[in-house]
């Protein structure tokens, strides 16, 4: 079972659970704001998807819950095997695969709480953590801003937690100049892994 804590927000009390388990997620429902909107579709709209993720090795599923309803979530996990970033081998990298808050709570500070909660994973100082943000999965209409403005908003969300913008030639990221690629290097990461990651960012796999 995950660890549950109470969070006070301007919109009322929420429960935040880190390392949410299958049992924690089972029975919760997604807020109806998670779904399809003009130009935007939520990454996760079914509890079953997060339940499956929670059963994977080393995953940290973070949920914000109000009245048995998920109103925010974050997902920290290892790279998928078919991704470039899996090329360094196991237990080297982790990815912020998702972070989302319902439209009505996006000014409550909940995003920062989700990031901080994801980073309670015990391996964060031993690994490089990266995140990829694509304009085509951002809720630009809901935010009422441009892709460039959303890029900067996301960067400001993660920068206080040690993330910096990085360069890469990964084709999907390079498709749009407003896409985002950020990384956080754990304080115990050795120089070899740092160098290997820099090379991998440009498609050069370590020997």
Summarize the structure.
With 207 residues, the chain is α+β, with helices and mostly antiparallel strands.
Report on this structure.
The protein has 207 residues and is α+β, with helices and mostly antiparallel strands. The chain has a single domain (3-200), classed as Aminopeptidase (3-Layer(aba) Sandwich). It is 25% helix and 29% strand. It has seven helices and eleven strands. The protein has helices at 22-25, 47-54, 110-118, 140-143, 147-158, 171-174, 191-200; strands at 3-9, 12-18, 29-30, 36-37, 40-41, 60-66, 69-77, 93-101, 128-133, 164-165, 180-185. Strands 1, 2, 3, 6, 7, 8, 9, 10 and 11 form a nine-stranded mixed sheet that branches. Strands 4-5 form a two-stranded antiparallel ribbon. The longest helix is centred in the C-terminal third of the chain and has 12 residues, at 147-158. The radius of gyration is 17 Å and the shape is globular.
Walk me through the topology:
Blueprint: E1 3-9, E2 12-18, H1 22-25, E3 29-30, E4 36-37, E5 40-41, H2 47-54, E6 60-66, E7 69-77, E8 93-101, H3 110-118, E9 128-133, H4 140-143, H5 147-158, E10 164-165, H6 171-174, E11 180-185, H7 191-200
Parallel strand pairs: 3-7, 8-9
Antiparallel strand pairs: 1-2, 2-6, 4-5, 6-7, 7-8, 9-11, 10-11
Which characteristics define this entry?
207 residues; alpha+beta; Aminopeptidase; nine-stranded mixed beta sheet
Number of distinct beta strands: 11
Main sheet overview: 9 strands, mixed
CATH class: Alpha Beta
What amount of the residues lies in strands?
A: 25-35%
Number of helices: 7
Low-confidence stretches: none
By secondary-structure content and strand pairing, the structural class works out as: alpha+beta
Spell out the CATH superfamily. Answer: Gcn5-related N-acetyltransferase (GNAT)
CATH topology: Aminopeptidase
């Amino acid at each position: 079972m995950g660890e549950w804590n109470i969070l006070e927000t301007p919109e009322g009390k929420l429960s935040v659970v880190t390392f949410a388990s299958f049992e924690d997620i089972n029975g919760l429902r997604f807020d109806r704001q998670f779904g399809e909107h003009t130009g935007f579709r939520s990454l996760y709209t079914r509890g079953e998807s997060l339940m499956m993720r929670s059963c994977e090795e080393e995953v940290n599923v973070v949920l914000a819950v109000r009245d048995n309803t998920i109103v925010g979530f974050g997902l920290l996990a290892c790279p998928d095997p078919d991704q470039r970033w899996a090329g360094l081998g196991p237990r080297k990298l982790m990815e912020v695969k998702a972070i989302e808050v319902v439209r009505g709570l996006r000014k409550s500070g909940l995003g920062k709480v989700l990031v901080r909660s994801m980073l309670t994973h015990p391996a964060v100082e031993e690994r490089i953590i990266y995140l990829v943000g694509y304009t085509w999965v951002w809720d630009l209409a809901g935010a009422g801003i441009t892709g460039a403005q959303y890029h900067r908003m996301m960067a400001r969300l993660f920068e206080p937690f040690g993330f910096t913008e990085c360069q890469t030639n990964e084709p999907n990221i390079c498709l749009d100049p407003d896409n985002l690629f950020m990384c956080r290097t754990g304080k115990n990461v050795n120089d070899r892994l740092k160098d290997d990651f820099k090379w991998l960012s440009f498609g050069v796999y370590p020997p």
